Amino acid sequence: MMLAAFHAVQVYENLSQQATESVSAPPLILAAYGFVWAAVFVYVWLLWQRIGRVERELAEVNGKLVKR
Amino acid sequence: MRNARWLVPTCLGISLLMFLCAPFLIDAAPQEVTMGVVQKIFYFHVPSAITAMLSAIVCGVASAFFLARRQPLADHVALAAAELVVLFGAIVLVTGPLWARKAWGVWWVWEARLVITLIMWMLFVAYLMLRRFGGPGSDVLSSAVGLFGAVLVPFVYWSVNMWRTMHPTTSVVPTLKAPMMIPFLWALSAFLMLYVPLLMVRVRLEQGRAALDQAYLALED
Amino acid sequence: MTGVLRAAWQIARKDLVIEARSRELASMTLFFAVACILVFAFAFVDDMGRPLPGAAAGILWVAIAFSGTLALGRTFERERQSETLRALLLAPVERPAVYLGKLSALLVLMLAVELVVVALVGLLFDAPLGAAPWMLSGLLLSGTIGFAAVGVLFAAMLVRTRTRDVLLPVLLYPVTVPVVIAGVKGTQAIFAPDPNLDLAAMWLAMLISFDAAFITLSLWTFGPVMSE
Predict the structure, then answer these.
(1) Number of domain units in chain B
(2) Considering the entire predicted model, what is its pTM?
(3) Interface predicted TM-score of the whole assembly (ipTM), two decimals
């Protein structure tokens, strides 16, 4: 099993050398960080929207209850 | 929760500040010898993973509480935590392959830690689907799912040590030298500072929804 | 404790007697497993018509997982239709007994189906079933236990849910994939041209630890989840 693992690492290393030199790092880094920011912002924005909606509805319904 | 009004904006503010400073700290950190500059994705990738696993544990504990005591708050926390596992898990699963493409030459490999992380993420997506499509009583059912999800977390953490794999082992982080450890801890704190208010706000949304349901019921009487 | 076991045996016996008389589940599950194997076999052969190396183990376990899900869905559907599950839960029987009873009955069914399925896989893929029969049996037994342990919990849990047919696989597969992976890896180690029994033993040990964790967790949660 050790031999198999060693062989696998060799294969990956070879793959790495061939494939990684042609790929440039900065776009990947930008994409990674960009995704993090985007995901968090989208989630926070969605939360904001949903809370606003629920609170408005709640105020409405409570208003109706009070009138009764 | 009433006197915690200041907590959410404060944590969010601190987190935002930390995130804004992070790129400078990360840029100043030394480059890793074998992988070069792309390794810097690590500073967001690993804290996300830690946050996701923490959230899974929170979900599991809240689920266990809910199963035992049936307190609505426990259920709200479990749901909020599950959503955050999906959010931070997605970050891990996207930033990881972006890093891997440069470091290993492929987007994905079928080895232990990646597979189990993907499974854990899918499990919490399934949790959310059960909540959405399961109809009444799905709060109780999903607590069972949340428990299983939380049990998976130790497997994610130890899978790297159990199977000798390509993914850096868990002994890397504790042995980081100061120039790398400081930006890492900064980023980790930023993520945790973000996690707490997100969880609280999401719980507040659920409480609002529950109150709304109650109000509609009262209206019908 | 013996009360629980005795009650579990009664519940399991009920299911097995029903099955022996109708043979509905056994025939359906078996046929479905065979159909699965054939479909995958057609997909995973090379141009010369030979199966891809290492494919046999994967196909075997996928067939077990898919047909097991079918059997799970069906046994609880049957309970739901005759409202016997509610009766079982209302009866003065401890919840763990209901769980263990259903689990045992399902295990007998799945293992019986697996006997045929393994033989078929051996035939179609020229897999060396005799290379390590005890190890293979151990892997199949512990893998099936792990799968069924979670399956019975989730299937019972979803019985009253409208979308149960779709939700059962959605919930079940993420949790049981580690079991399936361990089973496949262990079986691959046995079926390989030079079998590696130490590796297979490692996977077997992992399967046993999964079983322990899953059965414990399922026993704990079955009661609270099933009571309303």
Answers:
(1) 1
(2) 0.86
(3) 0.86
